[in-house]
Structures are given as structure tokens and as C-alpha cells.
Design goal:
The structure is a homodimer. Chain A folds into two domains: 58 residues, Orthogonal Bundle (Arc Repressor Mutant, subunit A), CATH 1.10.10.60; 129 residues, no CATH class. Chain A has eleven helices and no strands. At the A-B interface, helix 1, helix 6, helix 9 and helix 10 of A face helix 1, helix 6, helix 9 and helix 10 of B. The structure holds a DNA duplex. Chains A, B: This is TetR family transcriptional regulator.
Amino acid sequence: MTERRRGAALEKALLDAAWAELTLHGYAKFTVDAVVKRAGTSPPVLYRRWSDRDELVRAAIAHTMKEARLAIPDTGSLREDVLTLMREINSTRAELATIVIAHLAAHYQATGIRPGDITDPLVTGRKEAVDVLFARAVDRGEIDPARLTERIKSLPFDLLRHEFLTTFAAAPDRALEEIVDEIFLPLLVGDAGGGASAGRV
Amino acid sequence: MTERRRGAALEKALLDAAWAELTLHGYAKFTVDAVVKRAGTSPPVLYRRWSDRDELVRAAIAHTMKEARLAIPDTGSLREDVLTLMREINSTRAELATIVIAHLAAHYQATGIRPGDITDPLVTGRKEAVDVLFARAVDRGEIDPARLTERIKSLPFDLLRHEFLTTFAAAPDRALEEIVDEIFLPLLVGDAGGGASAGRV
DNA sequence: ATCGTAAGATAGAGGCCCTTTCTTAAGGAG
DNA sequence: CTCCTTAAGAAAGGGCCTCTATCTTACGAT
């Protein structure tokens, strides 16, 4: 150990190491010892900060989420706003979703914590900010606010999350477009039976 | 041990014990030793059948799935068929989904197996059989087959699965009705903006 | 009755989680 | 500059869990 790190720098090194181990070997094979070795430190250093393996995992997840905040797009059309946001989410969140669900599902009986309890950061980082997309679309006269139920608002992101949770990977772009053009937009802006071209904004 | 079980009876006792431990304590706290004790046997008996903890988990999942096959409803209307099936799935599959996702997500990096690879048994047991619901609706003239994309066919079950995977529990019946009346049926049979009453078949 | 096989019992090795103890480096105060 | 405090780094070890080896015993078939 050539140089001792202290405080926040050391903590970041530990969390980055933990994340690397989670993504490389998966939740099942994640070991505290591997994190310690990767971070070039010793066990008490880690346990001074997190009481056990699970708390370390949760801290690594939270740390990674914080480092990957999403911007809210403003493209001038609802379709493009939603697709852009979905593409952003798609390119950064599949891995995170896999690890989060692995941890929460394994501990649900003990903790009662569900993905839905943290689902906003899982997908978008800010629910209120997504509402901005819809407000803008209403202002532009693109959609009728009467059609805008909570379930429909969350629909594209629910389906994207479903993709993550059933494939553990980013979805093909074609799938994002199907979700928006075949399901989401027809529900909001047109005769639902029109198909993709009628649904195009 | 007053009476020795042999063969299939012993194997069923082991698998039932494994399932009981998974549902009671969750995937994270599941131990082979607890299964052995619950089944009233010894470790080599278990390891003669399954090479390790993970294989035992998978066998318990498969055993439980086999014991909970779903019937395909035939109510005379698509709405009732889909709702009935969703209610059946809802009442029997949330727990199974939680355990399956816990195992698969934790091992994804090592195995590459995703829920989608076994998603049919997870939800319905038989994809072709669900297609029968839609064929009947087309025969009855309820829906236009041109509207019936693969993604729309799977939509209610995808959204139900999404409920399971974000709550680890059965969904409220209200949610099932919202999925069908607010999203699924408007896409298939009417002007999507009509709301629940217009969507009712 | 005997024989073969699987069930049941038990001890133990290795790995992992977590804790205790000790040494050492680094930062801050005087 | 020195001294003190605190956290980092090192290492040993206990307990639990997974899994294996070994032995005894029960049960079914012949």
C-alpha cells in the first residue's frame, strides 16, 4: 500500500470496487473479500462504514444511481421527448435494474422492501420531472389531458422496466419505438387501432 | 426417523420443504441445512439428487410450477377471458415470480439465463393456449385481427408481470381492471381515448 | 433367509462473513 | 518542529454454511 487514502476518497474507491464486483460477477458471487482486495484495503475499513454485505450492496447501488442522473429532454414533441428519455434510460439502467432486483427479491421476505418503493430512481430519477414532459405536450396542444391517467403516464417506463426485468439487458431500439408508437401514443392521441403510422406525432 | 421414505415420495418431501423455506425465509436466507431439517433427512440424501444449493432452488421452482398449472378460460367475451386468466395468474404466481427473479438476477452474469427464457411458464404455462383466447375473440367478431400485434397480445400479461416484479405481491383487482379497460381493450376495440366505459366489451 | 441399494447419521474441510487486536501513517494543533 | 488523535492497513480467528467422505441401518427384491 503505497499511499493511504482517507475519508471520501477511500469511500468512493470502496463503492466503485463494490459496483465493479457486482457487475462483473453478479450478485450471487459477490464477496466482501473481493471488494476489499479490489479496493486495496482491509476488512475493518469496510465494516467501519457498512455493517454488513447487504448494506454495502445497497450503498453501491445508491452511489451508482447518484452518479448517473438523467437529464429531462425537451425536443418539441411528446414522441421525441419520451423516446429520448427512454433511450437514455435504456442505455444506462439495465444493469442497475438487474442488481437492484436481485437484492430486493432475495430479501423481500425479511425486509418488505420492493422495487416500487424506489422505482422512481430506478427508472427516471425524478417523477415530477417526467410530469414536465406531459405538461409541455398539453401546452403544445398535442394531447388531451383527460386521456392522461397515471397508468398511461407511466406506461412506457413500466414497459421499459419490464424489458429490463425480463431480459436483464438494454432493450433493442425497435422495442422502444414499438412501445411508443404501437401502444403509448395511440392511447393518447388517436384512434388506437390506427397502427404505428397513425400514432406518429 | 420412524419411517424411511424412498424415491419419489422422499424427493417430493425435499422439494416441498425447499419451497417452504424459500417462501418463508426468502432466497437470501435459504439454507440447505434448513431444508434437510424440515424434510427430516440428512445432507447426502439431498446431494444425491441435486449437485448444489442452486440446483435445488431451480428444482423447487420447477416442481412448484408443475403443481400449479393454469386452466384457460372460455367465458364468451375477450374482456372476461383476459380478466379471468389474469386473476388466476394473480392469485397464484406473485410468490413464484419473486423467487424466480431473485435466483435468475443473482446468477445472470454466470448463467446468462433470463426470466424471458422461461417467461411463458412463469405467467401462463402455455403461450399457444393464450393465443386461443384471441382466436376466439376474432371468431366472435369482437376484435380486428389486424390490430393484434405480438406486443399487444402480451401486453396485459407483461403489465401483470411488471406488477409482480415491482411489488413482489399480487396486484389489487382494481389494477387488473385498469390494465384491461384503460389500456388493453382501447387498443383493440375502440377509440383509445374513450376511457373505461368506451373500452368495455 | 441373503443381497443390494438407498436412506439416515455424523464428522470434517474449505470458503465466506464478520470481529478483534495490533501497528502504522497522516492530519491537525501547539 | 513535536506530539496526539484518528483512521487506515494487516493479520488472526470464530461461527456458519456448503458440500463431501464414511459408516450404519432399513427396506425391497429375489
